[in-house]
Amino acid sequence: MLLEGNGQGSFAPVYARAARLEIQRGRPTLASDLLVEVMHRMRRGEEALDIALVTDDPAIALNLPLPRGLNPVAIIAERSTDTADPFLPIVGGIVDATSRIANDDLVIVDSERGRVWVNPTAEQIAALQAETFRPRILVDQASTPAETRSGRIIKVWAEVSSSWEAEAAVQEGADGLLLTGDGPLGTELMLSDDFVATLAPLTESIGGGDIALHLPPDSLDITGLVRFATHCRLRLLLDPKNLPAALLDLRQELADAVEAAADEDIRAQVPEISAFTDEPDYSLSEFADVFAPLSPDWTDPALLYGLPPVHLWAPNATIEMLTAQFTPEDPEEEPRLPPIAGFVVAPEVVLPLKEFIRTCE
Description:
The protein folds into two domains: 2-129, Glucose Oxidase, domain 1; 141-357, Alpha-Beta Barrel (TIM Barrel), CATH 3.20.20. The protein is an alpha/beta fold. Strand 9 (106-110) and strand 10 (115-118) form a beta hairpin. The chain is built from 13 helices and 19 strands.
């Protein structure tokens, strides 16, 4: 049985035993059978029992002291609430929750989607237990993030156009891969009906890490993008003046596609939407971050103030050009980088640029 309400808290779905709160002598408590069972479990040295508290008012459950041996992992409530707890997922607004969910029922509580499955099927439980996507951690020396002498982490992305470039970029220590519509892989992608298969070389190279796609808006297949996002941390680079839809509508379309995929037991993170532009503008604050060509406009700290994180795009720049850009004329002064989040460069520039960043303030 699926019950729907409003969820509070960004938590992974949890699986637990339902425990209804009862009012006895004016005070909330749990069923006596459950309390006796917990006492015996503790005597036998067993682990604490995970329970989902079922109540009329979520505030009562949040403030209820529980005996040792009970581990509350979620709250299911009849009343809606805007209160989020940092440790417990809450789904409120479940009509007649206390009469529709019995003690000892098994439940899956998904606070992100505001859903509760009562006595779920084996398939639903298996989907819950399936591993969600986790990027592979690259631990070699080249993959160590570049940190300035003042402690800022500056990401270095590589622009790639083929699978061999992607592999070379990662070997050089690229923190992310940016693919445009130019080049063999981008062209193949726009002609392909299968994002996942076409871009498999990128996800394999970067270990499921950061991938950005800068493609024509009319080539974006939302369903394909979401399925691809199960294999990496995906972001879409879009021109703010040429969006395929209003930004909020586009985000909602992506979120709806992720939810639809979850119904098929396909788990993905909602892709980020980044601005790809050459004009500093405070309307860019609506985007997750900004990718912009390296120019004086984008290195002036005063112009960068108030904008989302900015990545300077310089795929044609050599390491000599980049170091000259940020090295003061006075040899006694240390190189200093503007308040940016990262660079996008050619694969062969990644490693020397990371080494230069480590010498900067």
